[in-house]
Amino acid sequence: MTTEQPLRDTSLRRAAVSRLMFLVQQNSLTTDHINTVAEAFGVHPRSVRRWMANAAQHNDRYTPQRRASFALTQVMRDAVALFCGNIAVAYRDLKKRGHLGDDPVSYATFHRAVTAAYTPGFLAGLHGGESERRKFDVHFTRDIGHRNLAWEGDHVEASVWVNVNGHRCKPWITWFIDCASDAVCGLSVSAQTPSRENILLAIRSAVMRGGAHGPFGGTPGLVRVDRGKDFLSDTVETAFGILGVRVVDLPPRHPELKGTVEALNHAVKTMHFPGLPGFVHAPRTSRRTKRDPDERLLTYEAFIRVLLEWVHEWNYEHRIRTRDHRTPNEVWHDDLTPIYDPDPQDLIFTLELHPRPLTINSDGVHWGKRRYLAPYMQGRGGTTVVLRYMPRQERTVELFDAKDGTYLGPAVLQNEATPEERREVRRAADREAGRLRTALDKAVRQREERFEADTVATTPRPSSDMTQEQAAAILKEHRQDEHTSEARPDLIPLPDPTATWNNTPKPTENRSGSTAPLLPPLPDPTASWIPAPLSGPPEEPTDEPHD
After folding, report:
1. Residue among 192, 214, 183, 188 at smallest CA distance from 203
2. What is the DSSP letter of 320?
3. What is the pLDDT of residues 398-440, one digit of tens each?
4. Each residue of 8-38: pLDDT tens digit?
5. How many CB atoms within 10 Å of residue 393?
6. Other CB atoms closer than 10 Å to residue 235's CB: what's the count?
7. Which pTM was predicted?
8. pLDDT value of position 122
9. CB contact set of 218 (below 8 Å; sequence gap of 6+)
10. Which of 177, 255, 404, 535 to pair with 524, CA 20 to 30 A apart?
11. Coil, strand or helix: which one is 515?
12. What residues have CB less than 8 Å from 275, skipping those under 6 apart?
């Protein structure tokens, strides 16, 4: 008998027993056959004979009897879900409530039943939600294909604090990567949340080749993006549509469908950002450790510079295991697929189009409160032009003749606000926001009702009781405020009193001893009466009859 681990696969046992039962029917079974099977499975020959006896009872088919095992009830499943997949806490709760029966099973049995009923991904989802469950899924891989067959684009937030004009912020990176070579074709960096401006700049950087852009780029066959509203904007779709590039809109929360750019995001977060000052996820001695006021952060310009250096290292020095340990540059040049390079002057489609034509005036082209001038405007006064601009970068615009679409050239912004004026505008906005925040906080404190702390179960009691006098004073003040807001004395001015108005005399004492105002005398019904005007002196009586 061999000392190796015995085979416990039921299907293998069934195949061996089926062969032995066939020999029994042919009256050719010998002891050597049984010993050979026993040695193959690492068991005693008596075990093989028991398998044959089991098969004889089930129409010559080996059918082992399963052991009685503990199964979860619906109440137990609900308890595991209630405590977010914490099996130990669910077991203690069920045992305390008596849902494990008179003879409760052990914790090991309960744990084994839970792990047998649920997959590891389902238990992780109970604890951390759908994002944790997806970590246990498996996915297909796409064919690599050739260069520029497909690109993938995405935004990623830098895990580094950067000094942007004296403010701490985390920049955003927008880039496009070629799926065949893993080469970063183009990128753009923004100090705030990215928009279509960042995508258009990244497209220009990715499509153009040569010089500072490097050999990577051209026109891809398709681009995979997530369901971001900036990637789905009309401007971005038009830019790709003019190049004949199909935009594949992937469903949300499925990073595995654009795994190439997600791998690039993970690489920059683990290979580049931890080595920079101001790393967000750097280990700290305590969660209450305050930020060092003397901490030196990278400037915005320095961050872009070191990021471009890392991208150059990724494209030319980093070797990728799934690409036969070659660099993206080597994979790109080993591929002989032709590349279409559009004319740089034809990339105007990456600019936003102004909805209506404008006119060249004596002081330039007016766009809102801005004026743009350029040398070629001399002698073109009154010409109608079409304006294109990069969103959020209106310092320079591109002008085209509205008649035939001829490109005229760039125009620059005139009378630009000074840095001090810009800072003053921002400070004024901060002050206004501070006043609003103070008012809102005060309103929240007034609406909130605070209660005293208790050590036993009791009715909640307000932390500070209000007297009836205080409540009446507050209500009176609110009513006066309401009346003041409703009164409109300036809507219709009150008229000045006239001689025909009847002034009520002061109250006099009557027979009962109480004071009461005297009623005004009744007018003579036979006399004609004309109402006095609302303002001005009384009119002189006339002898002419009235209508």
Report:
1. 188
2. B
3. 899 998 888 888 888 887 767 776 677 778 788 888 888 888 8
4. 678 888 999 999 999 999 999 999 999 999 9
5. 13
6. 17
7. 0.63
8. 94
9. 148, 207, 209, 339, 340, 341
10. 535
11. strand
12. none
% of the chain surpassing 90 pLDDT: 39
CA–CA separation, 545 vs 547, rounded Å? Answer: 7
Side chain identity, residue 403: K
What is the per-residue pLDDT for 242?
83
Return the residue matching tokens 């969660």.
287
Which residue is it, tokens 């305050």? Answer: 290
The separation between the first and the last C-alpha atoms of the chain, rounded to the nearest angstrom, is 137
Integer Cα distance of 529 and 416 in angstroms: 71
Please enumerate in sequence order all residues whose Cβ is within 8 A of that of 243, keeping only pairs 6 or more positions apart, or say none: 207, 219, 342, 349
Residue reference for tokens 């079409």:
386
Is the pLDDT confidence value at 224 over 80? yes
DSSP string, 415-480: SPPPHHHHHHHHHHHHHHHHHHHHHHHHHHHHH---B---SSS----BSS---HHHHHHHHHHHHH
**What are the distances in angstroms from CA 111 to CA 94, 116, 136, 442, 525?**
13, 9, 20, 52, 104
User: How far is CA 220 from each of CA 138, 180, 185, 338, 542, rounded to the nearest angstrom?
Assistant: 28, 11, 11, 11, 98
Locus of tokens 């080993």 = 334
CA distance 328 to 312: 10
Residue 461 tokens, joined:
């009691």
Q: Position of tokens 């006095």?
A: 532
- The DSSP element (H or E) to which 152 belongs, if any, is strand 151-157
In terms of Cβ atoms closer than 10 Å to its own Cβ (0-12, 13-18, 19+), residue 57 is: exposed
Q: What is the DSSP letter of 537?
A: S
* Angstrom distance (rounded) from CA 276 to CA 262: 21
Residue 157's DSSP bridge partners are 172
| pLDDT tens digits, 264-312 | 999 999 999 999 998 988 887 766 566 666 678 999 999 999 999 999 9
- Cβ proximity of 386 and 409 under 8 Å: no
DSSP single-letter state for residue 270: I
Query: Left, alpha or beta for 490 (phi > 0: left; psi -120 to 50: alpha)?
Result: alpha
Token duo for residue 220: 């891809």
**CA gap 347, 203 in Å, rounded:** 10
| Angstrom distance (rounded) from CA 132 to CA 243 | 39
3-class SS of residue 342? coil
Q: Report the 10 Å Cβ neighbour count for 512.
A: 7
